[in-house]
Amino acid sequence: MKGNSRYNYHHGTIHIGFMNEQLQKILIIVGLVLAIGFVFGPVVWNEFLHYDDYAYVVDNPHVKAGFTWDTLTWALTSVDEGLWAPLTRLSHMLDVQIFGLHPGGHHFTNLVLHMVNSVLLFLFLTRITGMTVPSALAAAFFALHPLRVEPVAWVASRKDVLSGSFVLLTLLAYQGYVKRPTAWKNALVTLCCLCAMTSKPAAVTLPFGLMLLDYWPYQRYQGLKSVLRLLAEKAHMLVLVVGLCMITVFAEQQGITPIENLSLGARITHGVVVYALYVVKTVIPYPLWIPVMPTPEFVTGIRLAGAAVLLLAVSIAVGWVWKKGTAEAQSREMRRSGAHDASCIVGWLWFLGMLVPTIGLVSFGHHVMADRFTYLPHIGLALALAAAIGNIETHWPRIQPVVLGIVFVFLISFAGLSMVQVRYWHDTGSLFRHTLSVDPNNYVALCNAGNNLMQQGNPEKALPFFQRACAINPKNPDPRNDLAVAYLATGQYNEAVQIFLSVMQQKPQDPDVYVNLGAALLAKGDFAAAREQALKALAIQPNTPKAQVLLEQASKKTVQP
User: Fold this and answer.
1) What is the pTM of this model?
2) Helices (H), 180-300
């Protein structure tokens, strides 16, 4: 590209002869959008899931109220549910404003955002590689991969697709800034980066990703002084990162409590295994289920050794390609011919770096890994794939048809697996029935399957699910609380009271536990005790609707002669 001596583009020769470049790009964009619509389109008929969708949207009074000063203040300042993601909350509020509580509209927004992200990725790859068809194939890999189903088909995963939009806008804005640096372009990069991080805190690694792009393709490193200069250039973004990390730590303390508190060494070994599993799932994304729970056999000696060998092998292969390309470029005195070999190491480091917030170094929640966590990391792998296809076309043109054939087979397979996976996300029952078919001892799936039956008015059928979940994880208060609610619904009041009392010992600051206990006591006829539990709940969290209703009911019964 003219006007920039800092980096060069390599133009591959894969093309469709009867088309000019712009028409080819337009047709690729249209084809990409149509393919995504064909594979993921059924999500618009999906229901809300009784798995965070109701907490984030359906039963959230702030979101349901739409845009008011109070709800805007809540969206911007509240840190409940373990995250500070104001832009994601605002997007949910906008959906309610437009679609109401019709689930199809909320799913449609996720779908459109994924389409936009895939197109933005294609445009970004074509700009930094100068190659259209390889970039299209890499964008299709990202767009149609089965690991995309979770963030697209799950309304509660809006933060992943929304942050993806702002990450890609940041990359495009940064490309413009590198080409011709100006203050307003720097401000635009910072704004997009801030929007990405306030859509999902895991995007805090984005400024470090920009440092990788400074190495390739922008070739802005020219010794130690240049490194310091580039760090200083991003100092304001790093300040934002530190601030957001502090907010996130505070938010997580107010949100979900991790079930397992692991030592640092255990977290590191856990992270190694998770990294390797993400690599395997990238190539063989089957079977997929939610959530992936910690088990005693998750980190074993054999699995840890295998994971370490796999990661080491990939890293060595990437390093060899990078070193070979650098040596070739220097020997020919041509940065252009070897530039794409650096894409492998940049893409690999992007993948590893973007996963850092979610591999378990910071213990949070009950799952050990999730498909949605690969949304941002796979941008790096798509970058490496685009450049690798172009490199093969340049250096080994004879095997190009074979390589393209393999890529097409993978894309078709990925699309087929994604279509199957989308069906499982239609409703709560089908999602967790699928999980239990893959992981029968998944206590979270058992609880959610039981709660789905409770929602359908079948507490008797739900009881075995909760009992099994409690047997699998007896120390966890949540399955026991669900079991007690089921006992209450089936008229087994004494059993419900005993379990609620034990749950209260573990969650003494949870007002819902006091409300549940009060409801059980009220059902037994102990109105004074029920009133006492309602007052305790209101003392912890004033204006709790359920506690107020319980207090009113218990008080009426208490004053009766």
Assistant:
1) 0.90
2) 183-199, 206-215, 224-233, 235-254, 264-283
